[in-house]
Amino acid sequence: MTIESAYSEIISAIGEDLSRPGLRDTPLRAAKAIQFLTRGYQQDIDDVINNAMFPSDSEEMVIVKNIELYSMCEHHMLPFIGKCHVAYLPKGKVIGLSKIARIVDVFARRLQIQENLTKEIAEVIIHKTGAAGAAVIIEAQHMCMMMRGVEKQNSVMTTSCMLGAFRSSQNTRNEFLSLIQR
Ligand SMILES: Nc1nc2c(ncn2[C@@H]2O[C@H](COP(=O)(O)OP(=O)(O)OP(=O)(O)O)[C@@H](O)[C@H]2O)c(=O)[nH]1
Ligand SMILES: [Zn+2]
What is the CATH number of the domain that holds 70? Predict the structure, then answer.
């Protein structure tokens, strides 16, 4: 079954008239949309990074904060939306700035829970850059909690993953936390 025909069935099953003009092209449109929202499954991390690693003597913390994040919860297939803060401690090389946001998207554009998304981003950053540490914090709101279910509009879920020096050194962790709060 194609995604398009699956959407046709869903639209019929909810009692709608698939032949009315407004819905005629909807299964195809919706199929394209869900493929975009889950395109992370088709992406390869090394292709995304595209060798954008540059030698550097700097061992100072690099932080990219407020990366906007759109993902889909794996329980309800509804969006969760928020921001992601990423940091790492370079060791001999730095990664192209945009690639950090691209890595976030590779994992966000899948069916996810926020905890796993946070961990997957941190693990790839540390493995691909050989950094002395990596840290990721995600703050997000889940449509499955807002539009339906418990219907809470203001709760924000915060998750973090601290690896390497961010886990072992409280000073490093505090530096990261104070810099993202500024
Ligand atoms: N830990 C975690 N839970 C999530 C995430 N996204 C959605 N959930 C939760 O997944 C749970 C699924 O619970 P179920 O009881 O199986 O599903 P449900 O009956 O639709 O639950 P309600 O949302 O409470 O109505 C809910 O508590 C959701 O809030 C996430 O990223 N992380
Ligand atoms: Zn959900």
Answer: 3.30.1130.10
Active site residue 73: yes
Phi, psi of 94 (to 5 degrees): -120, 155
Domain tally, the chain: 2
Phi, psi of 55 (to 5 degrees): -60, 140
Q: Which position among 112, 114, 120, 161 bears the catalytic label?
A: 114
Ligand index nearest the alpha carbon of residue 76: 2
Is 142 among the catalytic positions? yes
Which ipTM value was assigned to this complex?
A: 0.91
**The whole model's pTM is what?**
0.95
Same domain for 80 and 138? yes
Which domain covers residue 22, as residue numbers? 3-37
The average pLDDT across 99-105 equals 98
- Does the C-beta of 159 come closer than 6 Å to ligand 1? no
